[in-house]
């Protein structure tokens, strides 16, 4: 199996969580490039190559989206609705990575079409474990639709 690393796009509004995610990806020694946006509007701009994200080389189509639910401007739920309504974007797996443990958030997220719901771990070591598990599952076990990366 000769797979090229696929880009990962993370939408996360909390600066500390963004920094921890970058460190966890680095610590996990993943070959996948991590791109980070700060809210749902930036996420959609990235996906549609609008505004600051018009260059496809610096804003490639992701192979997976890691999405926080509670963000300013456009929250994760609204972003999921738009992504899953678009025939081209709906193929991208969306994994919710959030602090919420609310049953309603879990149910609604799956109703909107996400692939997985993960509650953010409270420790850095836990985050590394989650990132490594996500990587193994999505990039070694699962077959994703063929795309140009």
Write the layout of secondary structure elements.
Blueprint (H helix, E strand, L loop, with lengths): L7 E4 L3 H14 L5 E4 L2 H9 L15 E4 L8 H10 L8 E5 L4 H10 L3 E4 L4 H18 L8
Helix pairs in contact: 1-5, 2-3
Tell me what the structure shows.
It is built from five helices and five strands. It is of the alpha/beta class. The protein has a single domain (8-139), classed as Response regulator (Rossmann fold). Strand 4, helix 4 (103-112) and strand 5 (116-119) form a beta-alpha-beta unit. Helix 2 (40-48) packs parallel to helix 3 (76-85). The relative contact order is 0.18. The mean pLDDT is 90.
Order of helices and strands: EHEHEHEHEH
Straight-line distance between termini: 16 Å
**Count of DSSP-assigned helices:** 5
Instruction: Give, in spatial order, the strands making up the sheet with the most strands.
Output: 2-1-3-4-5
Going by CATH, what is the homologous superfamily? Answer: Response regulator
Total strands: the figure is 5
Number of domains: 1
* Beta-strand content: 5-15%
- Relative helix content: 40-55%
């Amino acid at each position: 199996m000769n797979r090229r690393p696929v880009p990962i796009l993370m939408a996360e509004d909390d600066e500390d969580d963004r920094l921890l995610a970058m460190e966890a990806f680095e610590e996990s020694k993943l070959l996948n490039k991590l791109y980070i946006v700060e809210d749902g509007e930036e996420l959609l701009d990235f996906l549609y190559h609008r505004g600051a994200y018009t260059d496809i080389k610096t804003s490639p189509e992701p192979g997976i989206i890691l999405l926080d639910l509670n963000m300013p401007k456009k929250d994760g739920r609204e972003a999921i609705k738009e992504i899953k309504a678009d025939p081209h974007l709906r193929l991208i797996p969306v994994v919710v990575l959030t602090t919420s443990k609310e049953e309603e958030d879990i149910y609604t997220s799956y109703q909107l079409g996400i692939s997985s719901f993960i509650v953010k771990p409270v420790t850095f070591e836990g985050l590394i474990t989650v990132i490594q598990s996500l990587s193994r599952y999505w990039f070694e076990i699962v077959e994703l639709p063929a795309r140009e990366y």
